[in-house]
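Homework help thread (please don't just give me the answer)

Our assignment gives two proteins as sequence + structure token strings and asks us to describe the second one. The first is just a warm-up. Here they are:
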Amino acid sequence: MTRFLIEREIPGAAELTTADLAAIAEKSNAAMTSLGVPYRWITSFVAGDKIYCLHEADDEDAIREHARRGGFPANLVAVVADEFGPHTADAR
């Protein structure tokens, strides 16, 4: 599967409560199950008026269909080309 970064513009996202986020997660999980294709939600980050998500799927169409079924935006969907972090410096 391919890893995708999804940017969701949601005004007031940073003010969402734990209960709000749990409800969103429940909708996301139901949408994933209903797709009937390989799909994995890795994690999400809330920042300002946006939620950034990492998902894995076979293609962008599955990502967009998940968003449609869940009722949340997918303003940007980008393939993750690579990942790195502090440990990457040790690979030299």
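The one we have to describe:
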Amino acid sequence: MKIALGPIQYYWPRDTVFSFYEAMASMPVDVVYLGETVCSRRHELRLADWLDIAARLQNAGKEVVLSTQVLLESGSEVATMHKIAANGRFLVEANDMGAVQRLAGTLPFVAGPQLNLYNLPSLQWMASLGAVRWVMPLEMKRDDLAILQQGRPGGLQTEVFAYGRMPLAFSARCFTARHRNLPKDDCRFSCLDHPDGLLLKTRESEEFLVINGTQTQSSRVYNLIDSLDEMKALGVDVLRLSPQARHMPDIIALFDQARRQVLAPHEALARTGPLMPGQGCNGYWRGRPGLEQHHVA
């Protein structure tokens, strides 16, 4: 199985992003997804900058994929999506149906996790439009994936979100700006102050959700490092790790050791614990509530 690094979900300073991907060039990741998927007001990097990083990573031997924004609200955002689709060099991850329509029948693409492909007819239809890889929806359980794997179209790769805080919803409203009583159009780029999102707690002080601009995430960190043998048996092609602000090289190294069976599943899981920005969970994979953590028997 290949290891993929998903797009950065947070708003990091320009120099931080460049330094991050400079480090990733020498890490054991096979695929790197690049681009802004959450909010078009995040202007630290422009498309030209993402293309520059993409070229550097490709020269380092990585497969590079450009990701489109999930929720498009303006003409300028649609125009950016069209530019990404027409980049002429790198594969594109389509994260909304507008991007799928733009790419369908003309260029191969990756069907992103927000497209909600839950059954064989939708998977077959997406492949007929030109999808060469699809990312399993985060809420899908292992047993349902097994069914799709048995009937998936030939040549279509399967990717599973295996690590990171889960993007649960996207909204036209910016929750981080609202937290500071600021309008969305004058957010003062508040997301820069929260490199791993802004944690919300219930009145009982239990960690509940993480707000990340217009995106709502799980407070717990989805971690399937102890389930790699199951994925391999199911024929999963790619594991996706979502970037976090700290310890990402260590997380990647542990997943690489786990896939090469240098570390036992339970040991790999134990070692990731201190490196995560929150508690772990794997409930969705087990067909249980998402916040639960179940250990492999």
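TA reply:
I won't write it for you, but here's a hint about the kind of observation we're looking for: The chain has one domain: 2-165+222-277.
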